[in-house]
Specification:
This protein is of the alpha+beta class. The protein has one domain: 3-Layer(aba) Sandwich (Glutaredoxin), CATH 3.40.30. The chain contains 6 helices and 4 strands; from the N terminus they run ααβααβαββα. The radius of gyration is 17 Å and the shape is globular.
């Protein structure tokens, strides 16, 4: 019985840890001004992910198929500063965060989720995209086409 219980605890731990998305390991910022400063220092592009992380099906698919993959993480580490502007339905956010996110959505005329805005290090618009089929390799190639 003791062995069964230990095995059960082990399997539960593995399943919980295994479910953790590697997007949690990506260095997402929540402030665009800070991201632009970082981009200038590192000579990188800023990827702004306007998302409804806990309800938007296409946002979840983008996370699962692209942002959670090592290929994207490696590309992002060398080339991107990542910003997540989230509009969740069930996650708590401060009023300040909600207001900030709404201002950015209005500024960039966001009409749906996910919307990915790419900015040069000086803040000028490089392009806008969203979810694409084909996985991380295809998405990285797509992002590279904006340069």
């Amino acid at each position: 019985m003791k062995t069964f219980f230990i095995s059960l605890v082990f399997l539960f731990s593995v399943s919980v840890l295994g479910c953790k998305s590697s997007t949690d390991n990506l260095p997402w910022k929540e402030n665009l001004d800070e991201a632009l400063k970082t981009a200038q220092l590192g000579n990188k592009t800023v990827l702004v992910n306007f998302t409804g992380s806990d309800w938007c099906i296409w946002c979840k698919r983008l996370n699962e198929e692209v942002f959670s993959k090592d290929e994207f993480a490696k590309y992002a580490e060398k080339n991107l500063v990542l910003v997540k502007i989230d509009f969740p339905r069930d996650k708590e956010q401060s009023q300040e965060t909600k207001f900030y996110n709404q201002q950015l959505a209005a500024q960039y005329k966001i009409e749906g989720y996910p919307t990915i805005v790419l900015l040069r290090k000086d803040g000028s618009n490089l392009g806008v995209t969203g979810y694409m089929e084909g996985g991380a390799a295809n998405y990285v190639q797509h992002l590279q086409s904006f340069k």
